[in-house]
Design a protein that fits this description.
Rossmann fold; RNA-binding; 4 domains; mainly alpha; three-stranded antiparallel β-sheet; 19 helices; two-stranded parallel sheet; 13 strands
RNA sequence: GGCCCCAUCGUCUAUCGGUUAGGACAUCAGGUUUUCAUCCUGGCAAGCCGGGUUCGACUCCCGGUGGGGUCACCA
């Protein structure tokens, strides 16, 4: 049974690289009929962020990452519920489990108590650095006598538990990076249990992945160099290690890994700025992975089908935000109109109040249908809306086409007004019909399109750039179209 | 600095020894168009360097250079 997991620490937002890891774990589990687990790695009390877990599962849900076990959004979108029988899925709730496993290691002489103070450790590293040595624990507490240890423990002296790295070398077989050999001598006696009783990542990840029966670990390249420690722990415990697949980092333009301080990395921020989950997924999934084809647009289903861990590239990938924009615009243009209308209605109502949508659903739908082609992000709609409320106080000069003059603009608009005025409201029910009528008018009177359409479009929009006059008249309907035309004519006279 | 990883257009990538080195974003030039956007056509643009192996290397091996990751009681 294939079992993958996504194990973020709750820092308050989902990193875009984390999203990619989650996506890959999801694709891999799904295509193999396996299960995916969400585990919360909250063993660092100092970095605890209020409400972060709730936000995280909400974001994952929103992105369509459907895991099978772990914390999920509760009924009626309230709270969180734990699904699955390998829990608890939050590390801070598993403290007794880690304690128990560490005791085993202690008894079997694979780990030892360390009573060194932070000061001593800092000093030690300072000296090592100065003498060009590797900063590494000097095993000061490795050979304390049983009596000494008992006495210190009884006296409640602060202490940690360290793993006792054996001699030899450790071989890592990684699905994406291949075979790597690490000399154990380069490994530090890693702290497993902190003085506050919490495990470090290294202990927790091994214990949990084993107990949760995880078969494949997909995680960031950052972890590559600590994988030997994890393998050694598996060996100490007598457990079969998981398969490891490390993923290359996502890079900023300066080729360094994306940092939250200097780059746009929070999935929540992308969502807030109007990127579609499916566009973001498509973009992020194809950074560092390519199904060996020229295709650029992939649905989630295609990705599940085509994803292949062995085709993940090994080099870090620079995030190209311009391509994200292109992709998002394309998804916007091609997505189901009704769904787009619903999504935009929610956005507009929350940003501008209900006045723009409520009671005007038909009109709002028409606006969306004529504007969608020029949106890059959902939020772009907000800037385009005012024009539909009011043409604004545009300059008369704008009404005059570059190849015409003011007098001509006036004449052409008067003709159009005469053409439209006798029409029924029903004649405004289709863009094509309006276009056909106006084109017939232009051709029939041997006019030039620009002379007629430019002033007409500006009269309707008040803008230098906008959708075509046919589309605008369709959105406005007869009454408002005529009203805007008359306003323009007043300006011209 | 030690250890580890990586190396094709500016960016993401394809090409599992024989290709005019392909596609996408960006960019430039045309075209369509009342405007913007879209769309269409075309252009510019790449195998880090040096050795091998081979009839033949972007592709395999070694070295160099460059870049990155990691070296905490953080994940």
């Amino acid at each position: 049974m294939i079992r993958t997991r996504f194990a973020p620490s709750p820092t308050g937002f989902l990193h875009i690289g984390g999203l990619r890891t989650a996506l890959y774990a999801y694709f891999f589990a799904r295509q193999n009929g396996g299960k995916m687990i969400l585990r919360i790695e909250d063993t660092d009390k100092e970095r605890e962020v209020e409400g972060a877990v709730g936000a995280l599962i909400k974001t994952l849900h929103h992105m369509g990452v459907e895991y099978d076990e772990g914390l999920k959004i509760g009924p009626n979108h309230l709270g969180a519920v734990s699904i699955g029988d390998h829990g608890p899925y939050v590390q801070s709730e598993r403290l007794p489990i880690y304690r128990e496993q560490v005791d085993r290691l202690l008894v079997e002489d694979h780990a030892y108590h360390c009573f060194c103070t932070f000061e001593r450790l800092a000093e030690m590293r300072e000296i090592q650095k100065r003498s060009k040595q590797q900063p590494k624990y000097d095993r000061h507490c490795l050979n304390l006598s049983a009596e000494t240890i008992k006495a210190k423990l009884d006296a409640n002296e602060p202490h940690v538990v360290r793993m006792k790295i054996p001699e030899g070398e450790t071989v890592v077989e990684d699905v994406v990076y291949g075979r790597m050999v690490f000399p154990n001598a380069d490994l530090d006696d890693q702290v497993l249990l902190k003085s506050d009783g919490y495990p470090t990542y290294h202990l927790a990840v091994v214990v949990d992945d084993h107990l949760m029966e995880v078969s494949h670990v997909l995680r960031g390249e950052d972890w590559l160099s600590s994988t030997p420690k994890h393998l050694i722990l598996y060996k100490m415990f007598g457990w079969t290690p998981t398969v490891f697949a490390h993923l290359p980092n996502l890079l900023a333009e300066n080729k360094k890994k994306l940092s939250k301080r200097q780059n746009d990395v929070a999935v929540e921020d992308f969502l807030n700025r109007g990127y579609l989950p499916e566009a973001l997924n498509n973009f992020v999934a194809t950074l560092g992975f390519n199904p060996k084809s020229d295709q650029e647009i992939y649905s989630m289903d295609e990705l599940i089908r085509l994803f292949d861990l062995t085709k993940v590239n090994r080099g870090g990938a620079v995030v190209n935000y311009e391509k994200l924009d292109w992709m998002n615009a394309r998804y916007l243009r091609e997505m189901d109109l009704d769904r787009l209308v619903r999504v935009l209605a929610v956005l507009v109502e929350s940003e501008r109040g209900s006045g723009f949508v409520e009671g005007k659903t038909e009109r709002f739908q028409r606006i969306v249908s004529v504007e969608r082609g020029r949106l890059t992000r959902l939020n772009d709609i907000l800037e385009r809306l005012p024009m539909y409320e009011d043409a604004g106080d545009y300059s008369v000069d704008l009404l005059v086409w570059k190849k015409a003059d003011r007098e001509d603009a006036k004449l052409r608009l008067e003709e159009v007004l005469a053409l439209l005025e006798p029409l029924e409201e029903s004649n405004f029910a289709s863009v094509d019909q309006l276009e056909a009528r106006l084109k017939t008018h232009i051709e029939g009177n041997r006019l030039s399109t620009g002379n007629v359409l430019w002033p007409l479009r500006v009269a309707l929009s008040g803008q230098k750039n906008s959708p075509s006059p046919f589309e605008l008249a369709w959105v406005f309907g007869k009454i408002e179209t005529l009203k805007r035309l008359k306003t323009a004519l007043k300006k011209l006279s």
